[in-house]
Design brief:
This protein is mostly helical. Helix content is 84%, strand content 0%. The radius of gyration is 30 Å and the shape is flat.
Length: 176
């Protein structure tokens, strides 16, 4: 006795079962991606909050140490922020040059190393010119003692920030 099975009856079931598995897999992948995007968004917000908090602390520190009046502060911060952005760019370029040298020094000729030295010195000259330019801009609305004090306050803030980071290091959440 031979039993005959009609396979066309099984195919829809198998097809629906396969579609269900694929659908479940896709939903699982989408859910995992949504969680990952949420985590990235939360981390980005956390970085933004820390940057805003640091900027507020810096503003309060400078205003207090320089004893800026409201009028002085209103003029000071746009000029100082512009100065800081320009100085940061020079520092980034200089650091990129140093990283480039570190990565490529084994393959560099003496001539190329000499050119790198000249470029490095050029960055320092740019920074000096920038400082001269902005010292003059600060002197347009601040007395000379406050402008000179600004240079000290910048160093004091960096020391304060480093000390604050050292003290709070054990309190910082682990990075993923």
């Amino acid at each position: 006795m031979m039993i005959s099975v009609n396979m066309s009856l099984c195919t829809p079931y198998r097809s629906n079962n396969m579609e269900n598995r694929i659908t479940k897999s896709i939903l699982l992948i989408l859910f995992a991606m949504a969680i990952q995007l949420s985590t990235v968004s939360t981390q980005a917000q956390s970085v933004t909050n820390r940057q805003e908090s640091l900027q507020q602390q810096k503003t309060a520190f400078f205003n207090q140490k320089l004893q800026l009046t409201q009028a002085e502060s209103a003029k000071f911060w746009p000029v100082y922020n512009d100065f800081q952005n320009r100085r940061d760019k020079i520092a980034r370029d200089r650091n990129n040059l140093l990283q480039y040298y570190e990565t490529n020094k084994a393959n560099m000729s003496e001539k190329e190393a000499g050119e790198a030295i000249q470029k490095y010195l050029q960055y320092h000259k740019e920074e000096t010119r920038l400082l001269e330019t902005y010292a003059a801009k600060f002197l347009a609305f601040l007395p000379p003692k406050k402008v000179m004090q600004l240079f000290n306050v910048e160093l004091e803030f960096k020391k304060w920030l480093l000390e604050n980071l050292r003290q709070n290091k054990h309190q910082l959440p682990a990075r993923n």
